[in-house]
């Protein structure tokens, strides 16, 4: 990494603001979970009521003095604000508290830095951190803001601050160039799946809604899943066979959160594009969460940012095991199409309903019928069996195979086209001669 991060575990004082614009309001419970996820040892949570933010400290000077006394009395290492601080506010508060000050964006960035596992994920986090830090470079360099002078110290006329900014710009350009290559590789892989007519389905949702647990249950994988915010950063793709539909590609993606920093959305664009290029989104929702409607709105807002708001969505209400008197079920809209599914990824109840609903939504053009294949199409017959599309097989008097099949029309067209036949003619005749 370009710079070192603290390893976490600091004694932290949390400061939560009330009285702000309702749209800008943050959840104090979620704030504490974020701090714990970052590895902080929470000393206290202080709620400050402030209707008009102060330009110098964000909060009033009297409350700043009160917090200063608490910081020294409790030997606090870090003060975290559940709000976005300007670079000058951050510097002013650090000067008073005589310890590190972090805002909500910096906290989320630190969590992302700890969770990133792949090379791509680390690059994305580093890019977001550098862009965030570039506006805060004044801190720590006040003694070097003059140009160097004196015998043996005369340089090219560039201050230390300017040198650091230039180095940051160079590093940011390097990372963006690498991520652009990653984006083109992902796009190439997606085009390959499109050519193979394999539908892609992405799990999206608020952080800690249970996406990775559901992903593991559906695909029998062992993706890291934990009861913490942002347990998953790096996207994972798995092939999944569904009855009545065939193969799909299922993607587990990073969770969303209130006011997800724009720098993170930009840095993770290559990853989030996996969702925006999907054929279907599974919006995983924590059914036990009291504020789930607000979380749904936040997820839809981020989907709008990445250009995925127009994609078909199936809502998956998860954590049914925490609710009473609610059974696994599929709820349908006025047209009879699946709209939401109620499941429990932890104990496996209702998982088959997810597959059924996905197959219905993606299998609008499902072919069900009997195909008559002459013996020279033995290879085609074997491919139908390999796909699991054959319901039964009989033979007529001339020795031709009568296959009762059920598979997506796109898959049927692809197989038949390989034999040099016109798919439409073949489907109408149900006979290959």
UniProtKB/TrEMBL annotation:
The keyword Ligase does not apply. Residues 199-366 form the Hflx-type G domain. GO terms for cellular component: cytoplasm. GTP binds at residues 205-212, 230-234, 252-255, 318-321, 344-346. Its cofactor is Mg(2+). CDD domains: HflX (cd01878). Mg(2+) binds at residues 212, 232. The keyword Disulfide bond does not apply. Pfam families: GTP-bdg_M, GTP-bdg_N, MMR_HSR1. Residues 165-192 form a coiled coil. GO terms for molecular function: GTP binding; GTPase activity; guanosine tetraphosphate binding; metal ion binding; ribosome binding. It is found in: Cytoplasm. Monomer. Associates with the 50S ribosomal subunit. GTPase that associates with the 50S ribosomal subunit and may have a role during protein synthesis or ribosome biogenesis. Belongs to the TRAFAC class OBG-HflX-like GTPase superfamily. HflX GTPase family. This is GTPase HflX. It comes from Pseudomonas alloputida. The gene is hflX.
